[in-house]
Every structure is written in C-alpha cells, then in structure tokens.
Specification:
The chain is mainly α. It folds into 2 domains: 37 residues, no CATH class; 143 residues, Lysozyme (Orthogonal Bundle), CATH 1.10.530. Helices cover 65% and strands 0% of the residues. It is elongated. The two termini are 27 Å apart. This is Mannosyl-glycoprotein endo-beta-N-acetylglucosamidase-like domain-containing protein.
C-alpha cells in the first residue's frame, strides 16, 4: 500500500512537459525521483498510513474484547465451564467468517456451555462428530468446529461453505433430526448479544 502511494506520488511529478523531460539528463532524472521520494509530503503520507493501520488494529482489538466479554458474561452468569473461552471463540469465528456468537450458542445448545459435554469424548462441548471425536483442549475443539463450519475443511466444505448462519445450522443438525434446531441456536445467539448493537458500541 505504501509503495503504491509513493509510486503514484512520483508519477504525478513525472508528468512534466515532454520538452523539459527530453532535455533533462538521465542522471538528473534519477536524482529528481530520489528527491521527490524523500520530500516531507511522502514522509507524511507514510506516517499517516502507519497511524491508520495502528488505529484499525486498535479498533479491532476493542471490538473483539467487547464480543468476548459478552460471551464470557453469558457463560459466567450461568456458571458454565466454557467461561473464559469468549476471546478464542471470537477470534476463530472471525478467522472463518462466522457470526461471532455462533460457536458459543452451539456449545450452549449442545452441552449447556460445557456442563454436559460428551462423556466418551474429551473436550467436546459441541457434540462434534456425534460425540465420537476427542480433542486435546477446549481451544482445539473451538478451532476445529470453526474451521469446519466456515467451510475451510476440504472434507466437510460441501456441507458448510458459502452458507448463511441458518443454513450452516441446518446442515449441522437437520430439521429432520432436531426440529427447530437452527431457531433455538439463533435465539441463544440473540440472548448473548445483538451483532449490530455490539459493533455500534465498538465504534463509539
């Protein structure tokens, strides 16, 4: 991005009358370009670009914290074992282009936030793989479920890729197996927090 800005800036100076350019020695032209690149305007542009990137990163961090706090508050108020996993859920949801509340809501619907996690499978609070798949930690479970639901696992992408949240949930547990499953999970999502509401607060 910075290099493109510099190139555009330099190009604006290269658009000189043809006569003047033709009469300028090559060495002088090279020196002129170097001088342009080192002008205060270019330095200021680079500084502004860096400050913008830092501001975006700060806003993203604040946004993630607000969302993570909303999830952890929901878990904590109900004494659910997955409390403290809010940030991990938000980060994995963003990485896989999922609604930030989805993983938490599925865990609540499937195991009451870890209270009734799969008995024969370790760290499986999502009912993933019909409770036949073990995980080494809650973090690994969150990463795996998020990657699959986001359509980023070639083995399962035909179920979840390019789908809305409702479609993802209906693929996760079809209505023929669990009637109104999608509606139940979405209701939990809305209780955790409204997506637009949280984003609005983050941008204040």
């Amino acid at each position: 991005m910075k290099n493109k800005q510099i190139i555009r800036f330099v190009e604006s100076f290269i658009l000189l009358p043809g006569l003047a350019m033709s009469s300028m020695p090559v060495g002088s032209l090279s020196q002129a370009v170097v001088s342009v690149v080192n002008t205060p305007s270019v330095v200021m542009s680079e500084k502004q670009s860096k400050e913008t990137a830092e501001l975006l990163a700060l806003n993203q961090a604040k946004d993630q914290k607000l969302k993570a706090d909303a999830i952890d508050t929901y878990f904590n108020d109900r004494n659910m074992p997955l409390k403290g996993m809010g940030m991990k859920m938000v980060q994995e949801a963003e990485k896989n282009d999922l609604d930030w509340r989805l993983l938490a809501a599925i865990a609540v619907r499937e195991s009451t936030g870890g209270k009734h996690a799969c008995k024969k499978a370790t760290f499986n609070s999502f009912g993933w793989g019909s409770c036949k798949i073990n995980f080494s930690s809650n973090e690994k479970a969150i990463e795996t479920v998020a990657r699959n639901l986001g359509g980023n696992n070639p083995n399962t992408d035909h179920h979840y890729a390019e789908k809305t949240t409702v479609q993802i949930l209906r693929a996760y547990n079809p209505p023929s197996i669990v009637p109104r499953y999608a509606e139940q999970v979405i209701a939990i999502m809305d209780t955790i927090g409204g997506e637009e509401m949280v984003l609005a607060v983050a941008n204040k």
